[in-house]
Amino acid sequence: MTIYDISKKAGVSIATVSRVLNGSDKVRPSTRKKVMDIIEKYDYTPNAYARGMGLQSLRTIGILCADSSDLFLAKAVYYLQQELQASGYESLLCCTGYNPDIKRNYLHLILSKKVDGIILVGSNFIGTSEEENQYIKDVSAQIPIMLLNASFDYPNVYSTLCDDHGTMYEAASAMVTAGIRDILYLYNSRSYSGCKKLSGFRAAMEAGGITDHEKRIFFYDGDPQQLDAVADFVERAAEKISFHGVIASDDSLAIGAVKYAGRAGLKVPEDLSVIGYNNSMLTTCCTPELTSVDNRLETQTHQLVQTLLGVLSGEEMPKQSVFSGKLIKRGTTLF
Amino acid sequence: MTIYDISKKAGVSIATVSRVLNGSDKVRPSTRKKVMDIIEKYDYTPNAYARGMGLQSLRTIGILCADSSDLFLAKAVYYLQQELQASGYESLLCCTGYNPDIKRNYLHLILSKKVDGIILVGSNFIGTSEEENQYIKDVSAQIPIMLLNASFDYPNVYSTLCDDHGTMYEAASAMVTAGIRDILYLYNSRSYSGCKKLSGFRAAMEAGGITDHEKRIFFYDGDPQQLDAVADFVERAAEKISFHGVIASDDSLAIGAVKYAGRAGLKVPEDLSVIGYNNSMLTTCCTPELTSVDNRLETQTHQLVQTLLGVLSGEEMPKQSVFSGKLIKRGTTLF
DNA sequence: ATACAAAATGTAAACGCTTACATATTAGCG
DNA sequence: CGCTAATATGTAAGCGTTTACATTTTGTAT
Known about the structure:
The structure is a homodimer. The first copy, chain A, is an alpha/beta fold. Chain A folds into 3 domains: 3-41, 434 Repressor (Amino-terminal Domain) (Orthogonal Bundle), CATH 1.10.260; 60-162 and 297-323, Response regulator (Rossmann fold, 3-Layer(aba) Sandwich), CATH 3.40.50; 164-295, 3-Layer(aba) Sandwich (Rossmann fold), CATH 3.40.50.2300. The first copy, chain A, is 43% helix and 16% strand. Chain A has 12 helices and 12 strands. Chain A has a 6-stranded parallel β-sheet, sandwiched between helices. In chain A, strands 7-6-8-9-10-12 form a 6-stranded mixed β-sheet, with helices on both faces. In chain A, helix 1 packs across helix 3. Chain A is elongated, with a radius of gyration of 25 Å. Chain A starts with a helix and ends in a 7-residue tail after the last strand. The mean pLDDT of chain A is 95. At the A-B interface, helix 4, helix 5, strand 2, helix 6 and helix 11 of A face helix 4, helix 5, strand 2, helix 6 and helix 11 of B. The structure holds a DNA duplex.
């Protein structure tokens, strides 16, 4: 069933059918009805690929995210899709996984679909070496690239992010100010934002006059959703060093620390203070509830889409929009 | 940059370029290299829409899911995409939200993209009235429809699901057998599987000789991810009726009950037993850990994709594949 | 009724690929 | 070295839309 079949059955030309389908103003109501009836009768759906051939822009944005079952990324994607839909844009979501080669493949895949722009969700799309980021440069030559939670200075690449360094600095400083000087730092990503958080932590330690913090920085290499495995990891860390506070780069790691405390018979927050990051639903899941950093995801996604729409309509837009996160105090801290 | 430009630069015809792109066997190695060099030099990506026009099948499956930030749905989507990718199929994911009209729009959208099949993830795509499900009948006339966690008997519609009735019956019966006869039942969806779970609960109550269970069945109408709101809801329920056990149709509701217990000073599981459903990461997030029903999601998604592949290659496949869920006993129950 | 402008509709080219079929090249063999 | 068969490459016809431009119809003012 093609537009051609419809046009014959309705006794009009294909151009008229096309106009009806696209809501053109220049169709007589009686003709429109005649065509619509046939379309509905045969449950006709125009072929998106043929449309894609003719049209200049399909008003479509590609969204790439490593793993949509990650709470943070899932929420980000959700907000983005809502925003885009509200602005009349379709979105194409690809969950790429963390393998760099596969990521690159998906980028080409999405590029082949005539998207007007690409949003890379999460800082794991930005590497540390020039070479790793070459593919971003290549693509940005063709269409604008938006980064959520990462930053990369290059023409036609726009960044929206949380000041993870400063925010983590504030969070860690709050703990130091509360008198806790032996803090375990847990992280599981060396991505752009992962590095910023870590540097913020280090800066806070130095500012607090702490000098032996490096030995309490631990990289967790497993699946963060396996909370028991995280707890095991913290337990092993506790065998090596002592600590009275835990700061994690993600809520799930922080929850693992709370679990460890339960096993070890430590009271939270009296014996152990814990701060998470991302302010996900996990924060209210445990007892006591988890103090965490809210990185204003909804504000960020809104800003990102506004910037993108501006860029697409040819306006000059800020290359980087930075927001400050905020420590949400709950039960796992005394301060 | 089109195949035509590439062909000119490489000094061959467009057919040859096309053959190189599609990995055809009938190209001389020297020619292939010549073409590949140009392709890489100009970072050329073929236009997916033009390809879509020519090709019979694009080896693409559409996946529809209401909300990918729901833990259960997100995991299901993740497994499905992995399975499909491993079988050489591309997947097109659409998060539709819960509005029926928008859902229907997305179905047409995805249909327009020449997908070879459609997977509907989650039972909220199946309604209770004939009319609600009409759209499924219409679409199934064109391509096969796979249901995950729902069932609908119609030609070209294939279902893979957990026996929610029986599984919930087992779980509830276990609680009754343990001597708990006043059980609060929490649910938040009247979808296909939501109804099956509820009927399983009722059957277990009746089998246990309990007659006043209807007054302890509560429908929660809010956002299940707002755990505090769920706890509030349970608190209000407790003002109306008494209970020593809670069974929920989803882990997040169960967690809300655990939170309520904490507030009310009730010890879990001594004063209150709690059973969740879906065996999500939330189960290990709280203390004590949540007893929950595992519905074998990975097994289901595997079966679903195998069935789909079978159908697509013209084989006769089972219309319905049912798996039994399994109660995973953790700390919120004594039995 | 007639002429003319405005509105509605139709015609045909273009979009960038795939692929059946035609043609040219190569290799093997006597 | 010429012939044939096999292999590689080229040509051109679709695929199903959109849309500029041409044509027809309608409405309005004379």
